[in-house]
Amino acid sequence: MPTRKKPAKKPAKPASPKGPGPKGIATRLRVLKAARQVFTTASFQAAGIRAIAEKAGVPHPLVIHYFKSKEALFEEVAMEIQNEILEGHPEFFSRLQTMGADKRKAVYLEGILRQGLRRPDAYRVMLLNAVEMVDPDTPLPGVDRMARVHEKVLSLVADHILEQAPAQETAMFMLVFMLVAVHFIGGRAFHQKTLGVDDKDYENWVKNTLAGLFIPVLDVLSKGKAAVPAEYMARWPGTPVHPPERSASAAKKQQEAPLPRGEITKKRILYAARRVFTTRPYDSATIRQIGQAGKFDFSRIHHFFPTKAALFEAVIQDAFETFVETIESWQQGVKGLPPEEVFIHYLQQGLAYCFENREMVGTLVINIAHYDSHRHVSGFTLMTRVHSNLLKMVEQSVPPGIPAEEVSRWLYTIVMMGYTLAGAPAYPARIMGLDPDSGAYKKKVFEILCFVFLPSLRSRL
């Protein structure tokens, strides 16, 4: 019987090069694009791999296949955004050096604003994540990259715009300028709603605000001058003024007339909710977490607040009522004082209050970047009204002689900086190299805000 010939072996396929093929590269890029869309609308904590996969139109295990973890994916998005921010900076700063000193400052401010409005992703990511840092020693993924961008831009400003300025004061200016830009560009939806203006008017408002606030301090820095007057620094921290009803005798009366049991439970829920909403934005905070923070069964919350939205609104309303009482007490004794004295008085009292009530202020700050996604939630609408009404109250105490529009822009910005530096201190404290709970950090915040905002006040007097 004839033997069968063994079939010839097929030639071995050449080994494919390492890494994904064209299809894999396209999928990876699609995931990266989807991740950028998610990370610019939700913070790192709130964003989920499933949401990214759904937006990319791929199974969620495929996201992990290409990027290993959410942290690695966020880092890649942050690196892409960082490169976009820095790619045009060397050429931009070189062009600035060909201009006169006065024109250079105005063009710098306008250039940063124009770039931010055209490419707001970096500012949104910074606002979403910087305000959620709790411990400066354990930053969220990507935060160190944001800090390195800040250091790079600070170096360019020092070398090309403020060559004669003291380094410490240049750093103070840049910290506030960066935070203001991050707020007004990254939190645009919230601020535009609060101001009640359309797109074009908002962009003009921001442009005029940056020029009015920062050109005077740039003038001071470019002349090599620095330092906040010693008499102002000696007055920190001062004595916080509290509403009369918060006095010791009032507190004693309250103890003598105990609240009904239901009211005590409700206050415990509100206190626990404030703690959670300070460290987690609305969309990632849960009723279960609030129960854990208050050490009670989370199901009891629904008896007083049927939904998370109702509880969030109650937290904002409670914060507003407390703040109104306090601001009214600050207004005593300021009538007839010079504008600088009024400013120092309000700055002392405002910062002291924000540091004492960090959880309440932090609830507002941490949710500003989320306004666009949750404007239908009544608590977010209330946030814009609260901020607007508080500013109107303070405006009434400003001495006459300064145009109302300039007063409004100036107050709006300094109040927002007070909220941010006191209510979400971990990121700025990391930039400063200070403990956010320390007296040194609080004193430095007072010094920075005095230094940055006094020149613009003096230029209007």
Which architecture name of the domain at 235-441 does CATH use?
Orthogonal Bundle
Q: Report the principal-axis shape.
A: globular
Strand content: under 5%
Helix content: over 70%
**Structural Rg:** 26 Å
Write down how many β-strands occur, each being a DSSP E stretch of 2 or more residues: 0
The tally of helices reads 24
- Largest sheet: number of strands, sense, barrel closure: none
Query: Unreliable segments (pLDDT under 50, ≥5 consecutive)?
Result: 12-18, 246-254
Order of helices and strands: HHHHHHHHHHHHHHHHHHHHHHHH
Round the mean pLDDT to the nearest integer and report it: 82
CATH superfamily of the domain at 235-441: Tetracycline Repressor, domain 2
Distance between the termini: 115 Å
Assigned CATH class of the domain at 235-441: Mainly Alpha
Explain this structure to me?
- The chain has 461 residues and is an all-alpha fold.
- The protein has a domain of 207 residues: Tetracycline Repressor, domain 2 (Orthogonal Bundle), CATH 1.10.357.10.
- It has 24 helices and no strands.
- Helix 7 packs across helix 9.
- InterPro entries: Homeodomain-like_sf, HTH-type_TetR-like_transc_reg, HTH_TetR.
Write the topology of this structure.
Elements: H1 22-39, H2 49-56, H3 60-67, H4 70-87, H5 89-96, H6 101-118, H7 121-130, H8 143-160, H9 167-186, H10 188-195, H11 199-222, H12 230-233, H13 248-256, H14 261-279, H15 287-294, H16 301-304, H17 308-330, H18 339-356, H19 358-368, H20 371-374, H21 378-395, H22 404-423, H23 426-432, H24 439-460
Helix pairs in contact: 1-2, 1-4, 2-3, 4-8, 5-8, 6-11, 7-9, 8-9, 9-11, 9-22, 9-24, 10-21, 11-22, 11-24, 14-15, 14-17, 14-19, 17-21, 18-22, 18-24, 19-22, 21-22, 22-24
